[in-house]
Write a structure and sequence with these properties.
mainly alpha; 4 domains; DNA-binding; transcription regulation; Sigma-70 family RNA polymerase sigma factor; transcription; sigma factor
Length: about 450
């Protein structure tokens, strides 16, 4: 900071390069570069956390921001290793930014893939409190027992240390001495906090709880698929899940309106509003909500920047939201308060997805689907609509797995190519603009197959 203030020609980029050049000769330079990397670590951790937060509730990664920051700080603490593969001819800050994010993602992947290879005690040692809590709750564990498990886990983390350095695959159980220390710490914390809901326990009970925590973690990381045709509960004569309908009296008034009235009427009203839009705006929404493209991918089609597309789409959806809110107030007597506006906005986006994807389905996909040979259609249908894996498809159709894989690839490519040509013609742009999106279109094709009613195929 002194250098920055004393010399106007000295900036962060200059100093970072200076300290990097002296990284292996000056301990002070090493510390400065560690601090420099912490800034990139903080930004990268926030980006990774935002990405994970969109889907980690489905794949059970369960990292919060503090967990990811710990990884970033670990990489920042060893700048000499961090910059080992850096090419000095390239910008230093670009390398720091991209490499930090890459290292964090690689570490998360390594840990997640390694969970299956952990020994029981290695799994418990390296899990987070949040993941254990959710695993126990999925097992049906509630307070006060949940508090007992988590407190025992905290004591285990505090006391347990392997007797010798081994891999996580072969960590040994705590020794009898460690189990006793864990028990003593648990009882001490219970007495110190004077929690009426928790009692002091003996060593065997602590060991039992920790083993139950391990089993809960194992169960939580193993997906269990329950057939809708399976009976509900242990009685094999009970009704299957597919025949059990929710009690309509349990639905809120708003849920009834959405299911019974708002969605069909809203689709009709929205369709009328969308037909009044100009072709330019309609094409924006088609790419955004029909194909689920981001603004950066849409911009080249119209020779503008992504900000212009974003602003135009947001302005259009806000206008549609206002029109639908007025309609809901007049026709359904829904008060346009903040909560209802949020619900209508969510429903609007769902309806836009449905409207434009249905338009794509009718305009191009249905014909392209019929152009495929029957075997290829059957393979695509079984894989993406019925969600049957390739090995089972090969067995059912008496084909090799390679033939099934080739059928999936060929069918998807043909459908994606037909959709790409349709986009080119519909938007009157060169196919060169569409080709970079071929992979995204292929994924979109799989989504269309999965989401449309069976009778459509």
């Amino acid at each position: 900071m002194t250098l920055l203030e004393s010399d106007p020609n000295v900036n962060e980029r200059f100093l970072a390069q200076h300290f990097y050049n002296n990284l292996h000769s000056s301990p002070l330079a090493l510390k400065h570069m560690s601090a420099y990397l912490e800034k990139f670590g903080y930004d990268a951790a926030n980006r990774v956390h935002r990405e994970l937060s969109r889907f980690q509730k489905y794949n059970q990664l369960l990292y919060d921001k503090r967990d990811i920051l710990q990884m970033a700080w670990l990489f920042a603490s060893t700048p000499d290793k961090f910059f080992k593969n850096f090419n000095p001819q390239h910008p230093l800050e670009n390398y720091a930014c991209k490499t930090m994010e890459y290292k964090i993602k690689q570490e998360i992947f390594r840990i997640q893939m390694g969970q299956k290879q952990f020994s029981d005690w290695g799994l418990l040692k390296h899990c987070t409190r949040k993941s254990l809590q959710q695993a126990l709750q999925c097992q049906g564990c509630t307070q006060p027992q949940l508090g007992c498990y988590l407190l025992a886990y905290n004591c285990f983390k505090e006391i347990y240390a392997p007797q010798r350095a081994t891999s996580n695959r072969s960590l040994q159980p705590p020794t009898d001495t460690q189990f006793q220390e864990i028990t003593n710490l648990y009882n001490h914390l219970v007495q110190q906090s004077a929690l009426a809901t928790l009692d002091t326990v003996h060593q065997q009970k602590i060991k039992q709880w920790l083993l139950e925590c391990i089993q809960a973690l194992r169960n939580f990381r193993s997906r269990q698929i329950i057939s809708l045709d399976a009976p509900k509960g242990e009685d094999e004569n009970s009704l299957p899940l597919s025949q059990i309908t929710p009690d309509p009296t349990s639905e809120s008034l708003w849920e009834k309106i959405i299911v019974q009235e708002l969605t069909p009427q809203m689709m009709t009203t929205l369709s009328e509003l969308l037909t009044q839009l100009d072709r330019y705006t309609n094409n924006h929404l088609l790419l955004k909500y029909g194909f689920n493209l981001d603004y950066r991918s849409i911009a080249p089609f119209f020779f503008v920047d992504s900000t212009t597309i974003s602003r135009h789409c947001n302005k259009t959806t806000q206008k549609l939201l206002g029109q639908l809110t007025q309609w809901a107030q007049e026709e359904l007597h829904i008060t346009p308060d903040s909560e209802n506006l949020k619900e209508i906005n969510t429903l609007l986006k769902q309806c836009l997805n449905q409207y434009y994807q249905d338009f794509i389905f009718r305009s191009v996909f249905q014909d392209a689907w019929q152009q495929l040979d029957s075997e290829c259609r059957h393979i695509l249908y079984l894989r993406y609509f019925r969600r049957i894996d390739e090995a089972a498809i090969a067995h059912n159709l008496q084909l090799s797995e390679l033939e099934v894989t080739n059928g999936l690839v060929t069918g998807t490519q043909k459908l994606a190519a037909a959709v790409c040509h349709w986009i080119s013609n519909h938007l009157t742009v060169s196919l060169d603009f569409v080709n970079p999106l071929a992979d995204k279109i292929a994924i979109f094709v799989q989504t269309l197959i999965a989401n449309y009613p069976e009778h459509e195929f």
